[in-house]
Every structure is written in C-alpha cells, then in structure tokens.
Amino acid sequence: MDPADYEDWYHTPRGRWIGETEYALAARQLASQAGDSLLDIGCGTGWFTRRAAADDLVATGLDPNSVWLDYARAHSSPALSWVEGDARALPFADASFDHVLSIAALCFVDDERRAVAEAVRVARRRFAIGWLNRASLLYSQKGRHGGSGAYRGARWHSTREVRALFSGLPVQKLKLRSAIFLPSGTGWATWLERGVPQVLPWGGLLLVAGEKA
Fold first, then answer.
1. Which pLDDT tens digit goes with each residue over 38-69?
2. pLDDT tens digits, residue range 73-83?
3. What span, in angstroms and rounded, lies between the C-alpha atoms of 86 and 162?
4. What is the rounded CA–CA span in Å between residue 102 and residue 49?
5. How many Å apart are CA 73 and CA 69, to the nearest integer?
6. Closest by CA position to 83, among listed 96, 75, 73, 95
7. Could you give the angle at which helices 47-54 and 13-30 cross, rounded to 10 degrees?
8. In angstroms, rounded to a whole number, what is the distance separating the alpha carbons of residues 168 and 177?
9. Sign of the Cα pseudo-torsion (104, 84, 49, 169, in order)
10. CA nearest neighbour of 42 among 90, 100, 89, 102
C-alpha cells in the first residue's frame, strides 16, 4: 500500500474515528504527562506518533520501511524523531523511553514474542501494545483468508495468545482492553463504543498495557 493512501484513510470520518478511539484507549492506559518520552513501534506514516506529540509528549517513531519514514518526516514537525529499525532488535538502550506504544504493528512482525520483549526492555515506566482481535467483527470483515487491504498478511490473535506473549517478562499490573466493537464508524458504532465496557474482549483492537517491573 502507498503511504499517502494509507495516511489519507486516517483523514476520512471512519479512519479518524478509529484512530482517535484506539489512541484514546492507549493514552488512558499509559497515563503519561506532558514532557514524557514515548516510542511508537511500527509507526508507519506516523499518525499515532504525531497524535502523541499533540499531547505534548516527546515522541519518536520507529519503522523498518524507509519509504514510509520519509513520508512521516515530510509531513511532520522537525521536533519529532524518526528512526529506521527492527522491532525485534530496537536500537536503543534499556529504559530509554518513559512509555512505549505500538498499535496493530507487531502482528506484521516475525517473532512477536521477541518484539514484545524488546518493547518492554526499552520502556522505563509503562507500555501499551495493540493487536488485531480474532474474536471480533473486524476479523470477519477484513481478516479472513489472509486479510484484505491494509490487513493483508496480519496475524489475528485471541486474548489468551496476546497475554502469553508477556509471560516471563519483567512486567506487572497487566490489563487487557479492547476497542472498535463495530468497525463501520457510523453514528450507531460511535454510540455503542461509548457504552460498551472496554474490558469486553470483542473489539477489533486488543490492547495489553502494563508497567515495567
């Protein structure tokens, strides 16, 4: 997919709603303060990285695709940092960032367990990592038979599988939340999203958040 087309989707009413809903879920779990540092793993065109910067976080986006990073740089403030790198071997020292964020990116990475361990390693305080949910309406629409559009090639997980990715790592107070219960983005979908408890594990995004032990 072309990065400009991908970014344009976030400027549609549905894309904007999904992006803001997913970011709000992660932001609540991170409970960051202005001036905190944040690493966005698998940042792509940088939508979530820029969204975090808009909340006065010192944001860095990391992605393995240089073309997408070039797009992110060209459409962002010079104050943001962009790093080309592999989620399985992050080019940062231990505890380099107050918070680590990743939204539906590690499901495209071989050896997700290693990528999760790296995310935890570079986090100083909290992390929020999201996966695509196999027990969701979004999966039935976009995930079957190898996936379609931006979801092609992604792995979709159960709650048990994403929890297992953190087993044995130095983490505590893990919470699992979900969002995007009706991915249509219609008025009915946005109304339902406000009322459904995020502890219910049926949203299109499964988010695991916690603290560095």
1. 999 999 999 999 999 999 999 999 999 999 99
2. 999 999 899 99
3. 20
4. 10
5. 6
6. 73
7. 60
8. 21
9. positive
10. 102
| Residue whose tokens read 């695509």 | 132
pLDDT for 93-129, tens place per residue?
999 999 999 999 999 999 999 999 999 999 999 999 9
Average pLDDT over residues 153-177: 97
Query: Greatest CA span in the chain, whole angstroms?
Result: 45
pTM of the model: 0.96
Residue 164 pLDDT greater than 90, yes or no: yes
Domains present along the chain, CATH in parentheses: 3-212 (3.40.50.150)
Contact criterion met (CB below 8 Å) for 25 and 177 = yes
How many C-beta atoms lie closer than 10 Å to residue 74's C-beta? 10
CB 212 within 8 A of CB 126: yes
Please name the residue that has the structure tokens 């983005």.
Answer: 185
3-state secondary structure the chain: CCHHHHHHHCCCHHHHHHHHHHHHHHHHHHCCCCCCEEEEECCCCCHHHHHHHHCCCEEEEEECCHHHHHHHHHCCCCCCEEEECECCECCCCCCCEEEEEEECCHHHCCCHHHHHHHHHHHEEEEEEEEEEECCCHHHHHHHHHHCCHHHCCCCEECHHHHHHCCCCCCEEEEEEEEECCCCCCCHHHHHHHHHCCCCCCCCCEEEEEEEEC
Alpha-carbon distance of 213 to 211, in angstroms, equals 6
